[in-house]
């Protein structure tokens, strides 16, 4: 990708161009001088002021002025800065990226701001638009590889055919509830950290139109955050569906993604409260399907239909989801690239829970990620309940990841049953 | 911003690129040169209109008409938005300003962001650099006039000669303590809401150098926020000298002025703890002189010497304070333009305190602003203590404002003495 500075420099190196640029500058100077002398009306002076400020913008854009570019803007990264961004952002990479901007004007300084201001983050960099991943690839690529183990040359594919899922119904005696979520973004519109008010509202317009068109079991209502009744708000709170304005010191606030709150944000859910969509929170869209019990296939089916039905309207609006054969579905945070899919069950495993280290180790071997009552590696909730999900996000299709989760859960159940019957599971664990 | 993609694509087209860029440049040059030659035969307005439409073409070509500019980005201002910005930002003014930027790249959207996100603010707009006041004058002017009653044609003058102060020593029996503060900014460097890391550090470098050179009673030490011992930090907290990272939902955070905290921020105080400077909090510099008792002249003298001594080093560095014959000393918030000076005393007026409405009314007539224990119009603190300061900030010199405060305080003391002796003050109040 070419930087403004590079181009400005390249332009200056070109003889024909030098004369062109010089003439351009002189032309402006000469042209401006003339009307200034003749200026008498207020509208003339305000037009001139307008022209001057637009020239400032052009100069800033060409990298021939302003915004502290002559100073060293490399961030102060301390030992408290634990993110992959902080680990990989060498001075050399920063200097390579510092004068670049995406077409929507998003810069590396904006991308890393939340990582600089929120030192404990694991990723530490966000995309302001789809192009951010390409424009800032020198830092994005190692962050993506560090998080996902996914190389710049790796390819991603999508498969959202729920009929391929096998053994997708897990007994309710084990599984309390099932939940599948992923993000989607609308191509051509900036992501929340880099968006403008108008683009954010355009995202909301397209998505709320799509959501309002849902039929059958997906039929429901869109609630804009800035225009709901007190009763609706209370109901959404009671259902744990409402998302709140991000507080100070959070990833989203420090990334600039909480600007203009609550403008352009909203929540959709179907009448049965088994399909939920967040609009313009961290991503353009977070799509969540959930229900009680262990019918993973049914939840996946609903999730797929929801995502696809929205897509039809998005396409009818002349738009499409952001998707790339390398990055998969593009989201704000690099950790959600690929499928961005998290398929999880709340599962009761009281016997396995008795050996916590072994349990977490098992999950890891099965391609699963487990969370206890207080996150990863914490003890289970009451009754030996864990939140277990697929671990990978990218490089595997949605079907593959859901199947991995299902297969892993069945294996955990097999081991739990063995333990219940007093059998040793050592051999089976070793064989994994 | 430059459409990297467009230009990259053009670059890949190679020969076409060169001729394309050349044609572009020559086209501009030729086109711009034309009106200069023919200026006498072209009307000013048609020349300007021609310039504007060709700038449109340049911007479109450079891709800087992006960043959601094709959408309506006018903010949603609700009845909760009480600021002067919200009051005066008509759609017409917004549309006039929306494509402008200062030389450092600061935009109207950045300037109003904190007013949009912090509805209760009184001002609701900040400057990202000195030029913001000029570039966005269509909204800045009515905000300034609304806050200060100061018209766009009004002139400001500075006078920092403490020898002109009369009756500057007020009895300690009345005055508990005296405090004078104002802000200063270094010309050519962006203000905290619009600054880059490098500019912020340059402000700190220049100011900490100046402060470290202070001698005599002003001699002291500069403590950078990111590099102080735990002991130093605790001492600064105990002295109430330390400023904290602005929390979420505050003016500064929502204005983008808390980015990169604590980088570039720091505190200076003299050994006697009677002269304090904050670096890169809301302003480049907040200068505060204070001491116990009512020797206002001495406090003002110290404050003036501190500001002037720092200025000498700023000038030796080839820089100067931001000052304008209309705006006075330029600060981040329009409410602090002019002198930005607040000269206050904590004063015990137990008799006057018995009639709170009359007291606040008196202060207003005397050009004073009074605060009780909980801000304006609240009851006094224990013993009838009020915080009383000058009310105006701009249109009067520092000497005039300090003298106004002193004269007003003497008048309040006269009335308090009358009340103590059981005399009616009605006639004197009426005569004000």
User: Can you count the beta strands of chain A?
Assistant: 13
Task: Give the domain tally of chain A.
Answer: 3
What's the architecture of the largest domain in chain A in CATH terms?
A: 2-Layer Sandwich
| CA radius of gyration of chain A | 26 Å
- Helix coverage percent of chain A: 40-55%
The rounded distance between the terminal residues' Cα atoms of chain A is: 44 Å
The CATH fourth-level homologous superfamily of the largest domain in chain A: Glutamine synthetase/guanido kinase, catalytic domain
Strand order of the largest sheet of chain A: 3-4-5-6-2-10-13-11-12
Biggest β-sheet strands, sense, barrel of chain A? 9 strands, antiparallel
Mean pLDDT rating of chain A: 88
Based on secondary structure, the structural category of chain A is alpha+beta
Oligomeric state of the chains present here: homodimer
SSE order of chain A, one letter for each helix or strand: HHHHHHHHEEHEHHEEEEHEEEHEEEHH
Strand content of chain A: 5-15%
CATH class of the largest domain in chain A reads: Alpha Beta
Biggest interface goes to:
A-B, 89 and 84 residues
Number of helices of chain A: 15
Shape of chain A: globular
Tell me the CATH topology of the largest domain in chain A: Creatine Kinase, Chain A, domain 2
Which stretches of chain A of 5+ consecutive residues score pLDDT under 50?
1-40
In short:
2 copies of one chain form a homodimer. Chain A is globular.
Describe the protein.
In chain A, the strands form three sheets. A nine-stranded antiparallel β-sheet of chain A has the order 3-4-5-6-2-10-13-11-12. Chain A has helices at residues 4-13, 15-38, 42-62, 84-88, 91-97, 108-117, 132-135, 137-148, 197-212, 230-238, 251-254, 296-316, 356-365, 398-420, 426-431, and strands at 169-170, 175-184, 220-224, 266-270, 275-279, 285-292, 294-295, 323-324, 328-329, 342-348, 368-372, 375-376, 385-390. Chain A has 15 helices and 13 strands. The first copy, chain A, has three domains: 4-62; 84-148, Transferase Creatine Kinase, Chain A, domain 1 (Orthogonal Bundle), CATH 1.10.135.10; 162-431, Creatine Kinase, Chain A, domain 2. Chains A and B meet through helix 1, helix 2, helix 3, helix 6 and helix 9 of A and helix 1, helix 2, helix 3, helix 6 and helix 9 of B.
């Amino acid at each position: 990708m070419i930087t403004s500075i590079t181009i400005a420099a390249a332009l200056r190196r070109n003889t024909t161009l030098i004369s062109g640029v010089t003439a351009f500058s002189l032309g402006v100077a000469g042209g401006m001088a003339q009307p200034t002398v003749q200026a008498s009306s207020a509208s003339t002076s305000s037009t001139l002021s307008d022209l001057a400020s637009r020239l400032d913008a052009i100069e800033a854009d060409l990298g021939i002025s302003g915004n502290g570019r002559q100073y060293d803007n490399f961030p102060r990264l301390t030992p408290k800065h634990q993110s992959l961004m902080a680990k990989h952002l060498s001075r050399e990479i920063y200097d390579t990226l510092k004068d670049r901007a995406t077409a929507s004007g998003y810069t590396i300084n904006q991308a890393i701001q939340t990582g600089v201001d929120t030192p404990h983050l694991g990723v530490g960099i966000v995309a302001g638009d789809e192009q951010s991943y390409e424009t800032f690839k020198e830092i994005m690529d190692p962050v993506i590889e560090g998080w996902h183990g996914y190389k710049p040359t790796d390819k991603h594919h999508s498969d959202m055919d729920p009929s391929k899922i096998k053994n997708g119904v897990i007994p309710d005696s084990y599984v309390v509830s099932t939940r599948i979520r992923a993000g989607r973004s609308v191509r051509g519109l900036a992501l929340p950290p880099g968006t403008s008010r108008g683009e954010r509202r355009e995202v909301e317009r397209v998505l709320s139109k799509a959501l309002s068109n849902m039929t059958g079991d997906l039929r429901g209502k869109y609630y804009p955050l800035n225009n709901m009744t007190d009763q609706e708000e209370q109901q959404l709170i009671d259902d744990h569906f409402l998302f709140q304005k991000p507080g100070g010191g959070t990833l989203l606030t420090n990334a600039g993604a909480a600007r203009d709150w609550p403008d352009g944000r909203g929540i959709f859910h179907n009448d049965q409260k088994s399909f939920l969509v967040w609009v313009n929170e961290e991503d353009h869209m977070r799509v969540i399907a959930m229900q009680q019990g262990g019918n993973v296939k049914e939840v996946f089916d609903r999730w797929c239909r929801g995502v696809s039905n929205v897509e039809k309207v998005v396409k009818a609006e002349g738009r499409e989801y952001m998707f790339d054969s390398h990055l998969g579905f593009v989201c704000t945070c690099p950790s959600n690239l690929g499928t961005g899919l998290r398929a999880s069950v709340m599962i009761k495993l009281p016997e396995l829970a008795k050996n916590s280290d072994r349990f977490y180790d098992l999950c890891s071997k099965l391609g699963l990620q487990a969370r206890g009552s207080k996150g990863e590696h914490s003890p289970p909730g009451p009754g030996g309940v864990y939140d277990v999900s697929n671990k990978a996000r990218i490089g595997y299709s949605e079907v593959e990841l859901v199947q991995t989760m299902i297969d892993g859960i069945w294996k955990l159940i097999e081991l739990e049953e063995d333990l219940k019957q007093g059998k040793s599971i050592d051999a089976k664990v070793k064989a994994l």
